[in-house]
Q: What sequence folds into this?
């Protein structure tokens, strides 16, 4: 039995319904903290019933270099050492290309480079109507280091869970398999993959499962919009069997999920009796029992 | 040549040698679907087209374009190679590394390759000259030809590898001159997207008329605007009215360059991995209009550029 259990909802492919399902699940689990780790494009706060923002924390993602023309002697050293081609011919640093490695700052013979932390985003701790805490973040557009902001969100979530004595942290993860996804997955106890029965869904499912295996995280799979293509649903079932993954079940395509989103609600609120809502409750029950076994 | 045909060729010319990036903010809005169908349409209209898949975490364009891959090679990034005999564990390299990729222990320096950004600072900093250039594979670059004569290229990131940006830059080194270059960007708005659209002449934002779609569109638009990019919006899976989207678009002077309805037939062909335009030729007019609109946006860009040069 571990202390606080962390469960993360991911998808590989974007737009499979990850957030809609995570939102619905968050109303079914009790005694939990919810964290939105899709810091590029956070959406979960739009369907959870937030009470108020309790704390806003600044996020500094890293440093960026800036050349002071007064001190610069045009020697060209910075252009030689920058491997990102971020220094222009007239010695201006392009902040988009700058990775913040500091090579120009440390190696400039004239000491003409400033290298300061930049505000890259915000992290919010909120209270919700059901008294659980909700943490989400916003990355300022075009800023770097979303993985580090994900870590900040997760640390805040752990703090809140500890304070309130919660047993579960439910994380809505970002799409893809790169840096922010890795930060969302590492050290969690259970990964829930929401996939869709399409060739792209199947392709991306394999890659995200490879990733959860790589980190040795217990993995469960749910197929959303399951009536699009039956053969891919069977493929997903077989894939789970072959790879020792828990198959959670299917959620049929439900246009009311979009309607719920438009009303800032989850499907469980506006159509509790539809097949999709029933399927989500079934998935919740299975997840609950997996979490209890951990 | 009819007047129509003439206007059309002129607009196509506007797109030549231009980078047309497809972005979205939110995932799953149909970026890849629109990009591959446009590539198919342009190639079908006898234009020279290159399709570059920069969504290296989850590249999907190949599922629809089904390219014949004729070149495949690993993509490497720079990592420090530390000469243990020369290293004195002085700690200079780890003290300067901004990415915590190096840790100095009494017996030597430990490298965490997946944290390394390949900047080479440690190589310059080491007083003992104990660090050299090494390399590390982060993924695969594959090139080929698709659907007739679309020049196809994509990057496939190794699973477990966080460094997507160097692979994206590797894909973009393959730009072909005079081609219309269709660039499929990853979802989101952080570094991989910024690097993908950094040299785009036009950014096509593919959105869906839902609150999530709109919320993420706003973030993506503010990113592209801050980079000074001309933006056109494609509304995918339109189904009835969604006034907040219309209000946002008109308030911000964002042109809608194409709208596609929610159509089960499109979804069906998608779910079979097909280019839907091939099966549903009724949509050709919409892609013609899309090409025309992108051409105009690229043209605006071209003209302002010329003004600058004068």
A:
């Amino acid at each position: 039995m571990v202390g606080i259990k962390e469960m993360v909802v991911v998808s590989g492919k974007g737009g499979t319904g990850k957030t809609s399902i995570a939102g619905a699940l968050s109303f079914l689990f009790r005694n939990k903290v919810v964290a939105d780790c899709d810091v590029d494009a956070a959406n979960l706060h739009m369907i959870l019933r937030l009470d108020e923002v309790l704390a806003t924390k600044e996020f500094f993602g890293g440093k960026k270099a800036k050349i002071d023309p007064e001190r610069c002697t045009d020697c060209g050293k910075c252009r030689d050492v920058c491997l990102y081609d971020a220094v222009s011919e007239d010695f201006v640093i392009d902040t988009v290309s700058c990775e913040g490695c500091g090579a120009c700052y440390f190696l400039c013979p004239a000491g003409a480079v400033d290298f300061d932390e930049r505000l890259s985003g915000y992290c919010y701790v909120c209270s919700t109507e059901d008294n659980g805490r909700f943490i989400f973040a916003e990355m300022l557009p075009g800023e770097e280091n979303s993985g580090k902001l994900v870590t900040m969100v997760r640390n805040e979530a752990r703090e809140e869970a500890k304070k309130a004595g919660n047993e579960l942290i439910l994380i809505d993860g970002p799409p893809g398999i790169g840096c922010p996804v890795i930060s969302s997955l590492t050290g969690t106890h259970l990964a829930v993959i929401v996939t869709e029965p399409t060739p792209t869904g199947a392709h991306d499912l394999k890659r995200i499962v490879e990733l959860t295996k790589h980190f040795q995280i217990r993995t469960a799979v749910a197929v959303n919009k399951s009536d699009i293509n039956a053969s891919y649903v069977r493929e997903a079932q077989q894939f789970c069997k072959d790879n020792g993954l828990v198959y959670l079940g299917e959620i049929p395509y439900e246009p009311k999920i979009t309607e719920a989103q438009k009303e800032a609600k989850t499907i469980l609120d506006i159509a509790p009796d539809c097949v999709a809502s029933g399927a989500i409750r079934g998935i919740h029950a299975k997840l609950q029992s997996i979490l209890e076994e951990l | 040549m009819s007047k129509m045909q003439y206007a059309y060729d002129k607009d196509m010319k506007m797109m030549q040698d231009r980078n047309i990036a497809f972005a979205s903010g939110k995932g799953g809005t149909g970026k890849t679907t629109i990009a591959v169908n446009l590539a198919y349409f342009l190639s079908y209209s006898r234009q020279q087209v290159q399709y570059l898949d920069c969504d290296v975490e989850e590249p999907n364009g190949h599922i629809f374009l089904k390219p014949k891959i004729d070149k495949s090679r690993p993509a490497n990034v720079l990592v420090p190679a530390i000469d243990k005999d020369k290293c004195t564990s002085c700690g200079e390299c780890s003290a300067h590394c901004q990415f915590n990729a190096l840790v100095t222990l009494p017996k030597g320096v430990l490298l965490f390759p997946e944290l390394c950004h390949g900047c080479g600072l440690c190589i310059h900093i080491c007083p003992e000259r104990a660090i050299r250039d090494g390399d590390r594979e982060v993924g695969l670059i594959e090139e080929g030809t698709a659907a007739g004569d679309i020049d196809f290229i994509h990057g496939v990131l190794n699973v477990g590898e966080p460094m997507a940006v160097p692979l994206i830059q590797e894909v973009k080194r393959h730009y072909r001159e005079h081609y219309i270059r269709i660039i499929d960007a990853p979802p989101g708005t952080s570094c991989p997207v910024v690097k993908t659209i950094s040299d785009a002449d036009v950014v096509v934002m593919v959105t869906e008329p839902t609150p999530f779609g709109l919320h993420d569109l706003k973030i993506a638009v503010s990113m592209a605007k801050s980079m000074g990019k001309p933006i056109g919006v494609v509304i995918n899976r339109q189904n009835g009215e969604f006034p907040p989207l219309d209000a946002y678009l008109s308030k911000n002077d964002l042109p809608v360059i194409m709208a596609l309805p929610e159509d089960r037939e499109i979804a069906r062909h998608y779910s079979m991995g097909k280019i839907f335009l091939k099966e549903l030729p009724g949509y050709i007019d919409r892609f013609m209009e899309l090409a025309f609109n992108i051409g105009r946006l690229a043209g605006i860009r071209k003209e302002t550029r010329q003004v600058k040069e004068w």
